[in-house]
Amino acid sequence: MAASALLTSITATALAPALPRPVTTGQASAVPSPIIRARGLGRRFETARGIIDAIRDVDLAVGTSEFCVIVGPSGCGKTTLLRILAGLDRPTSGTLEGCAIGGRAPTNAMVFQGRSVFPWLTVRQNVAYGLKLKGIGRRGRRERADHLIEVVGLSRFAESYPHQLSEGMRQRVAIARALAVDPDLLLMDEPFGALDEQTRFILQEELLRIWEETRKTIVFVTHSIDEALTMADRIIVMSAHPGTVRTTIPVPFPRPRELTAVRSDPDFAGLFAQIWELLRSEVQSARLTPLGDRP
Ligand SMILES: Nc1ncnc2c1ncn2[C@@H]1O[C@H](COP(=O)(O)OP(=O)(O)OP(=O)(O)O)[C@@H](O)[C@H]1O
Ligand SMILES: [Mg+2]
Question: Which has the closest alpha carbon to 108: 147, 62, 154, 160?
Fold first, then answer.
């Protein structure tokens, strides 16, 4: 943990001179060297209640090593989008390109909210699980798992089972497990949503540090504007159901980041207000219009 202590001790001091301008068009083409690119992505569900367009016309590109955060009203299709990016579901319209890395498609791992670990496996076995599937030998698995268990601060609990851990510790196991397979793209669906505020802050700090060390490409869904501003290089604001990209907001805070430095940055309040205004209008329009009446 020495390297991480060093990283978190660097205080971010440079300030951006003005609020960045939101970008409303050209999302898929504006990102240099994207690892993944969605164009006109849609997902329609046919249910007993009728047709539900969960997402529609989503244009989104995520750059290599970018920390991209998605916010949007409940039910706007964030999980649906993430599942499609993960290859767990297929779009019913549009295209999704995984941009080749060294001639192959990018790999991914997903961290869900609160249910990403196997209760019958120890912490070490959970973290090593994906490595076994990749055919990595026993010794290699153990070394890699123990390194990541240390990165997330759980070395003392390597032999523990998930029920012997707190919720925050279980989420750390889930993050370590996702990192273990060294995915090109890490997809996180409200990974800290169910945690108390202090645990959330600690895990945010840890994820910031892990990002500094690994420069993983991350797509992270949250309901918290605060969390989005703390973590993101770029925030994608989605419209209410059917979800589409309403606005993209670049986040100017320098890295390495510290929670307190971000919150005391003069741009923080303005960006918070800008995103909240967008979200408020989306949440209100979602409440006023029944699902079936939406265009
Ligand atoms: N398998 C499915 N079958 C039918 N409808 C679905 C299915 N999955 C999602 N939906 C619908 O698609 C819409 C988007 O759901 P999704 O879970 O993606 O939203 P979300 O933005 O992740 O919401 P939340 O913020 O509450 O997690 C919702 O109206 C939901 O009911
Ligand atoms: Mg969701």
Answer: 62
- Amino acid identity for residue 50 in this structure: G
- Do both 196 and 279 map to the same domain? yes
Residue 10: DSSP 8-state: S
Peptide bond into 242 cis (omega under 30): yes
pLDDT tens column, 145-192: 999 999 888 999 999 999 999 988 999 999 999 999 989 999 999 999
d(CA 186, CA 211): 10
Residue-number span of the structural domain to which 236 is assigned? 27-107+186-208+216-295
The C-alpha atoms of residue 72 and residue 260 are separated, in whole angstroms, by 25
Helix (H, G, I), strand (E, B) or coil at 215: coil
pLDDT in tens, 214-247: 999 999 999 999 999 999 999 999 999 889 999 9
Same structural domain, 142 and 288: no
Question: CA–CA separation, 265 vs 283, rounded Å?
Answer: 27
CA dist 96 → 87, 172, 225, 233, 240 (Å): 10, 30, 27, 22, 22
The β-bridge partners of 100 are none
Candidate of 51, 69, 78 to mutate for ligand 1, largest count of ligand atoms within 8 Å of Cβ: 78
Distances (CA, A) of 56 to 45, 243, 279: 12, 6, 18
Any ligand 1 atom below 6 A from CB of 181 = no
CA nearest ligand 1 atom 11, residue: 54
Query: What's the pTM?
Result: 0.87
Q: How many whole angstroms separate alpha carbon 101 and alpha carbon 228?
A: 27
Q: Is 157 a domain residue? A: yes
Q: Which of 46, 49, 80 to mutate to test the pocket of ligand 1 (most atoms within 8 A of CB)?
A: 80
Identify whether 134 is part of a domain. Answer: yes
**Coil, strand, or helix at residue 270?**
helix
Q: Which two tokens stand for residue 187?
A: 């997809």
